[in-house]
């Protein structure tokens, strides 16, 4: 993985010293809160409902064991012994005190991490496929270009005061696991003949006005990528609405001006900018790429794996749900679920972080990934090591076999922590997971993505959940709207609202009625929820939700 | 007829800890809603708010929150304020834990 150059280390150290001085000046009264707030946000520090919250960048979700251990240390020393992994592959600490934050940032810098541009109207942490460099279906590893974009966007002088935040995601695989269509810019690595290039999507986003990204360039050559990105952000920086924060994101700019006009403006700007990129970026990319060289994969017999698979039902169940095909023979991508039934989605204790770090070191070529689905990935594990790995996970409450299942729920922090939230998300996720665990029908249901947001800003990606849940405040009472048919993959689609919302007490039974209806409606156990929904449409599910006394039939409409 | 004024408390987050605080009658800050000064007059509430806003070295984000006065002290009228005076529901952290700590 990428290691800091002298320049990176010096830059982060300088920023940390600068922020330390700013915190001191805030505390001694030299800075007002109005002056301090943009400064703290540039360094990832929010003030939430009960405390400050520090959001730490995990670039494209990649961590090594040493970094994960340092996060554990920070959680114990300055927080309440846990961290929360987010839908943008970052980690948040929910309880730091203002005076401690400069020390936390210094501790992060020791392991080449920081919190720069995890907030504010800047280009945020670049996210990528969490299976990058490992997936069997990958065209090319998206991390080198994600790192190049990180370097280009960090402290970019033109892009420090954008109309609003700006998010970029990259996938190197046609199976989009990075939700690229819901980003301000989505990059998809594609092949044309033997040449590798980029399909560029622009103007995607969730939030109050969900939009699926539109293709602005079908095939961009690699050497044109940075100037083209700079052209897009530059065009939006001028056109973007600064008068109304609900209309400031690039999705609105693209929507208001139309993709053709935006494309023409971007092409003009690109023509101006392109000569300034004389190839140094490509030299840097080549250097970065070398740092992401694949580990040396070993060849070993699979007898131990096969024996455990035949003998141990718990191991078999975990293998069947939590593994993904690896590109190297004998290897697997192993996902560690942070969704134990009834637990807070995305939370890991300091002890669990250390266990995952140890396992990555022992069995996983020292690599960990944070997925946007709030789980941890060990991207390179030889199958012969999986029985021992699984046994260790079991000892620490990390062996939940539910990846992609109904209890593998994305949930934002919601009203339990977030100052913007209008309702709670976490308890709803906990109750749904607990309920379906009791029913013991998770495996029968199969692939089903529930995503929950505690407000319209949609951090919980509810618009692209197969079942999306949005928590709102209706006259001081939590109310939950349901959407169905959302899709977060390369076939991205925004879900449709079912109708009136449900109270906190009613929402879990409502989800159960949807699932019961699906089990009746599907034409076979192989037809996933999302496919059944596409085939039968909304009406039978509406019947199940709002007229439960009626029989659910596919032709009910 | 003017609308009746909903009683209020002055609330904010402490600058250093980020913890929720309420303004007491003696101008000190308390961590407990029960000890907050309940303001029943609109003009008085606005003056108290302005005074509190002039203390940026102590608190951040000062505002007036609606409460319902009861014999046990002011009670929140909105869910959000109920969370602010209690702590999160997924862990026994924040004020609920501190309260228990101080009783032990």
UniProtKB/TrEMBL annotation, chain A:
Domain spans labelled Nitrite/sulphite reductase 4Fe-4S: 119-271, 408-548
Keywords, comma-separated and alphabetical: 4Fe-4S, Heme, Iron, Iron-sulfur, Metal-binding, Oxidoreductase
Domain spans labelled Nitrite/Sulfite reductase ferredoxin-like: 52-111, 345-395
Name of the protein described by the UniProt record: Sulfite reductase (NADPH) hemoprotein beta-component
GO molecular function terms attached to this record: 4 iron, 4 sulfur cluster binding; heme binding; metal ion binding; oxidoreductase activity
Pfam family, one: NIR_SIR
InterPro entries, sorted: NIR_SIR_4Fe-4S (IPR051329), NiRdtase/SiRdtase_haem-b_fer (IPR005117), Nit/Sulf_reduc_fer-like_dom_sf (IPR036136), NO2/SO3_Rdtase_4Fe4S_dom (IPR006067), NO2/SO3_Rdtase_4Fe4S_sf (IPR045854)
UniProt KW Iron-sulfur keyword: yes
Protein source organism: Roseivivax halotolerans
Coiled-coil parts of chain: none
Superkingdom as given in the UniProt entry: Bacteria
UniProtKB/TrEMBL annotation, chain B:
Record field: compositional bias (Basic and acidic residues): 95-104
Residue span of region Disordered: 70-104
Protein name: Sulfite reductase (NADPH) hemoprotein beta-component
Species: Roseivivax halotolerans
